[in-house]
């Protein structure tokens, strides 16, 4: 800074040197104590601190405006070699970088394709896992009486083959036995099944003057049951187990019975009345 004072002239300020000296000293003291304004010379390189010239410009010094970092914090920058671009790589980081790196799978980690799969390999490259096509079975579209019968699967559940078959659907409708209802004055066949067989139901009644009667079936696999039991004046029926399958049932006079029957291919249902009396019989059957 610059301090200006008036100096006494040696041999020429006989009556004024005292005030001049005192005024000069006051000017210096006031400037040093900040009592009066002074303008220091802050020209870059012109002022010193502890004997060392300050070479920073005003612009450079102003960059410290608002700085709150401590000396220790500033010293952390000592030895920093990273460039601005390198430091900017941390922009947006919200957690510990090393922890994030440790959580990443190593490129040496490998993915192995299991059974029925292809692909795999190390994570050093992009990998694609594909599902192997182990089935060459094409679609099957059946119609009519042709239906799927068998489906074969491999270990992984792939369809490897489909088998079809043609089924036979009975075309016969109800076949009412002849006669469908009425009295029989003679023994003989009531109804006969065709080549596919027949399921049906019957009612059989033996009047009082008929003595006894028998209803029976013939044909491979044929059977008859007496499901409604016997009723009437004489309630004996043989066989006595009315729900059992049999090939014949015998009834006494004054007796009614009913049940179901099955006739094998070309089988028949017949009655036998042991008297000249008439028997009441009715049947209904469904051809197979």
Descriptors:
single chain; 288 residues; alpha+beta; Immunoglobulin-like; 3 domains; seven-stranded antiparallel beta sheet; five-stranded antiparallel beta sheet; 13% helix
Shape-level CATH architecture of the largest domain: Sandwich
> Percentage of helical residues?
10-25%
- Into how many domains do the coordinates divide? 3
Q: Which word captures the global form?
A: rod-shaped
Number of strands: 20
Which consecutive residue ranges, at least 5 long each, have pLDDT under 50? 176-181, 231-241
**CATH domain class name of the largest domain:** Mainly Beta
Question: What gap, in angstroms, lies between the N and C termini?
Answer: 132 Å
Helix-strand string: HEEHHHHEEEEEEEEEEEEEEEEEE
Averaged pLDDT: 78
What can be said about the biggest beta sheet?
7 strands, antiparallel
Please give the radius of gyration in angstroms.
Answer: 62 Å
Helix count, per DSSP? Answer: 5
Could you describe the 3D structure shown?
By secondary structure, the protein is an alpha+beta fold. Helices cover 13% and strands 32% of the residues. The protein has five helices and 20 strands. It has helices at 17-33, 58-62, 71-75, 84-87, 97-103, and strands spanning 48-49, 52-53, 110-112, 117-118, 120-122, 130-131, 146-153, 159-166, 174-175, 181-184, 188-192, 198-206, 212-218, 223-224, 231-232, 237-238, 248-252, 255-263, 268-273, 279-287. The strands form six sheets. Strands 9, 10, 12, 14, 15, 18 and 20 form a seven-stranded antiparallel sheet that branches. Mean pLDDT is 78; it is low at 176-181 and 231-241.
């Amino acid at each position: 800074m610059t301090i200006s004072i008036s100096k006494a002239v040696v041999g020429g300020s006989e009556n004024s040197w005292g005030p001049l000296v005192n005024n000069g000293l006051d000017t210096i003291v006031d400037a040093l104590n900040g009592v009066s304004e002074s303008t220091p010379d802050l020209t870059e390189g012109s002022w010193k601190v502890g004997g060392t010239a300050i070479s920073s410009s005003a612009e450079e010094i102003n960059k410290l405006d608002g700085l709150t970092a401590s000396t220790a914090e500033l010293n952390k920058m000592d030895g920093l070699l990273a460039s601005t671009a390198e430091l900017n790589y941390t922009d947006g980081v919200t957690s510990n970088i090393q922890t994030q790196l440790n959580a990443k799978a190593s490129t040496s980690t490998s993915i192995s394709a299991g059974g029925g799969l292809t692909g795999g390999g190390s994570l050093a490259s992009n990998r694609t896992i594909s599902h192997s096509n182990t089935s060459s079975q094409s679609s099957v579209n059946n119609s009519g009486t042709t239906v799927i019968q068998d489906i074969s699967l491999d270990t992984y559940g792939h369809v490897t083959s489909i088998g079809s078959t043609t089924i036979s659907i009975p075309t016969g409708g109800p076949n009412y036995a002849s006669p469908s209802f009425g009295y029989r004055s003679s023994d003989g066949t009531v109804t006969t099944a065709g080549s596919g067989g027949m399921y049906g139901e019957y009612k059989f009644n033996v009047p009082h003057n008929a003595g006894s009667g028998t209803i029976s079936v013939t044909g491979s696999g044929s059977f008859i049951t007496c499901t409604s039991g016997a009723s009437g004046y004489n309630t004996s029926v043989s066989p006595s187990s009315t729900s059992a399958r049999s090939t014949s049932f015998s009834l006494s006079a004054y007796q009614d019975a009913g049940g179901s029957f099955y006739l094998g291919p070309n089988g028949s249902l017949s009655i036998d009345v042991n008297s000249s009396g008439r028997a009441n019989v009715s049947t209904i059957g469904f051809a197979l």
